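Q: Predict the bound structure with nicotinamide-adenine-dinucleotide.
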Amino acid sequence: MTEYLNETVFTWGATPLKFGAGAVDEIGWDLAKLGAQRVLIITDPGVAATGLPSRVADAAKAGGLTVDIFDRVHVEPTDDSIRDAIAYAGESTWDGFIGVGGGSAIDTAKAVNLYTTHPADLYDYVNKPIGEGLAPPAPLKPLVAVPTTAGTGSETTPVCVMDFLELQVKSGISHPYLRPDLAVIDPLLTLSMPPEVTAASGMDVLCHALESYTARPFHSFARHTPETRVAYNGSNPISDAWTEQALTLLARSFRKAVLNGGDLEARTDMMLAATFAGMGFGNAGVHIPHACAYPIAGRVREYRPGNYPQDVALVPHGESVSLTAPAAFRFTFPTDPGKHLHAADILDPRGADTTRDERERLPQVLTSLMRDIGIPNGLSGVGYTAHDVRPLVEGTMQQQRLLAVTPRTATEEDIEAVLTESLENW
Ligand SMILES: NC(=O)c1ccc[n+]([C@@H]2O[C@H](COP(=O)([O-])OP(=O)(O)OC[C@H]3O[C@@H](n4cnc5c(N)ncnc54)[C@H](O)[C@@H]3O)[C@@H](O)[C@H]2O)c1
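A: Predicted complex:
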């Protein structure tokens, strides 16, 4: 066998999907094909209030299935809320699950599927260093993901994220078995999404696309064996193609979807963008903005964004990733100026946001968009001060799985500089 020092191979996986207006009405047929007869729908109270999960249940029942709905998912799931969902599901026997909602509901459905199929202590499958990082022993039951936000791409990823309340840190589980068996992506389900959720979840899509596009290239890693090759390969020609398409759709429709939620064409573009970006980052990986987002969300004190549940303080995932994005792309610019400038050109094709300093072009395009759609102004906008930077650095440095695909080594000092620059973005 030829000996290579550097990686020459990348992998690319995706969930089979059904896309389009009305796609969800066929879910009974799809579930029966997957061999599921008794299914549990997993959703959160806000999504339940829109009536969408009942509509999915009716469509599944029309296919002859027995269906129940669990609607207590916590928005931004916590270890406690995941345990609650697992306990509920464990009271009966299910042969399939449907996650209906944003990333919170779909991630909870992934965890419920994992822990009811292969029971274990919650920490057993959680990524190191928070958990034991054990691999599930065998594949799981059928899981269908029905996203109602255009955001996380959780419907196509092998990842589930949760907040460990006492540790004040977000972490997750990452294994190919977690990837849903089918994503039913119906843009009509996003028409009821409030502007704040549209803005935050759309920024998640944008950061997925930009981070995976600028990630460390797969061929710069040391050669893996088939057993050690990780899900996050680094940027590669296939993920680049998907992320460029996602950026084009975002340029056309992101502002429109926030300003006029009833614009079905814009909503369809956003759903496609989320799917394409998911296909990119789910294989290439994400880096600094996502690594910083975990402690930014985990250490929140008082911030309560409009149109999110008001019972607890939270920084929505999409906001937490976008707050450091301008500074992060300023930091990564020297690794591949061409890609950073190309991304800025796709997002701002008329060059409305022009600057003579090439390094500032992408940060400027981002801050202009964030201002227009109502994203808070940097870390200070969600209640952090300069005193918080040190603990945020420590939390970020724990996310080595993500930092590994940063295109240049990010030391503690570098992350401190990114977070300090991000206290105010404009
Ligand atoms: N698994 C992954 O690959 C992955 C990737 C990124 C983020 N995440 C996780 O996903 C979560 C965030 O998910 P999200 O941004 O999709 O939002 P979300 O699921 O947290 O939902 C946000 C809010 O929007 C409401 N909502 C959702 N869809 C709606 C609709 N159509 N109409 C009316 N209200 C609606 C919900 O009730 C909730 O109040 C975080 O926990 C994050 O860590 C997971």
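A: Residues 237-259 form the longest helix (23 residues).
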